[in-house]
Amino acid sequence: MRRERPTRGTVVSFAAIMLIVVASISPSQDSLEARATLLDLQVVAGDPEATSVSLAEWADSSGGYYTFRSAERVELRVPPDHLEALQPLLEATGDEIVLLAPATIDYRSELRDVEAGIVSRTESLDRVLSFLSSANVSATLAFERELRSLTQEIEFFEGRRRAIINDTRFARVTVRLSVRSRSVPADLPSSFGWINGLSLYRFIDRLNEEGRR
């Protein structure tokens, strides 16, 4: 079967599509400090399921959201300036925070690298497009492969940039829930006083001695 060669009209159409792609790609103008906040909490709750629901609702009302929720763990994304309301929220329900571990991640260096990657590949894309309209058929096919490769790389960097910006806008909060249980004494006293003074091994030895009598 004979393969039809791309016509000049096909080349022009492809170039027009790629120009739209380039126009939609612009370096981030968001001057965030690019630091992400992480907060890990261990909470002893009287009703873990109710606490889980309450945390999810609080995240939504704070302009954030939850990514996972169960009676054992809740994963939240909330604006950092709302974190100060989290402790009073838990204490108001009678829950006890037994561990609170904050941390930060500095994304400034990675964000600069991502921005530089977008700029350099966008410039390369512009250069390829400038040669595309005057290229012959074989060159056009090579240019098309290069355009696809550059576009995929730009999309990767764009996705990473969006993820970093989202991490800086929303703190990542992990709340691990455990149920409050009644403590049971390790050694329950017996009503027989002589047993209370025996260890397990001494008790077994005594039984054996009595069995030999």
In short:
This protein is of the alpha+beta class. The chain has helices spanning 8-24, 48-61, 86-92, 108-132, 137-169, 193-196, 200-212, and strands at 35-45, 65-69, 73-78, 96-106, 171-179. The protein has a domain at 35-108 and 170-179.
Order of helices and strands: HEHEEHEHHEHH
Mean pLDDT: 76
The main pleated sheet reads as: 5 strands, mixed
Q: Give the terminus-to-terminus CA distance.
A: 103 Å
Apparent shape: elongated
Structural class: alpha+beta
In terms of DSSP E residues, the strand content is: 15-25%
Low-confidence stretches: 1-32
Report the radius of gyration as a whole number of Å: 32 Å
Total number of strands = 5
Number of continuous helical runs: 7
Strand order of the largest sheet: 2-3-5-1-4
Helix content: 40-55%
Protein model, in words:
- This protein has helices at 8-24, 48-61, 86-92, 108-132, 137-169, 193-196, 200-212; strands spanning 35-45, 65-69, 73-78, 96-106, 171-179.
- Strands 2-3-5-1-4 form a five-stranded mixed beta sheet.
- A hairpin with a 3-residue loop joins β2 (65-69) and β3.
- It is an alpha+beta fold.
- The chain has a domain at 35-108 and 170-179.
- It is built from seven helices and five strands.
Quickly list its features.
alpha+beta, five-stranded mixed sheet, 7 helices, 53% helix, disordered N terminus
Provide the fold topology.
Blueprint: H1 8-24, E1 35-45, H2 48-61, E2 65-69, E3 73-78, H3 86-92, E4 96-106, H4 108-132, H5 137-169, E5 171-179, H6 193-196, H7 200-212
Parallel strand pairs: 1-5
Antiparallel strand pairs: 1-4, 2-3, 3-5
Helix pairs in contact: 1-4, 1-5, 4-5
